[in-house]
Model the fold of this input.
Amino acid sequence: MPTPLIITLIVLVVLAIAMVVLYFVGNKMQEKQTVQREQINAAAQPATMFVIDKKIMPIKDAQLPKSVMEQMPKRYQRAKMPIVKAKIGPQVLNLICEEAIYDDVPQHGEVKAMLSGIYITDVKVVHKKTKKKMAEEQESGKKQKKTLRQKMISKQAEYQKQLDYEQAVKRNKDEEKKRKAEEKKKREREKKITV
Done:
């Protein structure tokens, strides 16, 4: 066999193995993310807050509580994340915002948000003035092209919604199967009792 053909075959085998490994690692990470998202949604509580400022900045510069910084993995301490400075009641807090809803958070506006600790999972604008101001800002500014980051975030949000929908459908089907199986067992028991 010629040497270039052997090298090509070796490279193809290595690539195939890498793809299989990445597939299984990706599935495990997706399951882990799903479990984490369910935990976050279970712990979420509604809160009304006034957004003072919002920025995408490194976590280490966000002035988050010390306990949060100690628990955060090293790789995320240097990563840039969307940070929202908001007034909740008498306190002014720095919160981490979900990237998919970061653009929906108004600057200098009152919102109702779902908070899970210091993590904002959902936002709804409260005042008509804030909605009007946001609409005016969008109209007055030229239509800005989305940056690559914004495009990727919107794609991620779409894929997350699709995944959530598919999982809900799967759960409903599983529950339906369990219900039918239980009904079948009940009918069989009733037949045995009457006989």
The chain is about 55% helix and 25% strand. The radius of gyration is 25 Å. The first strand starts at residue 45 and ends at 58.
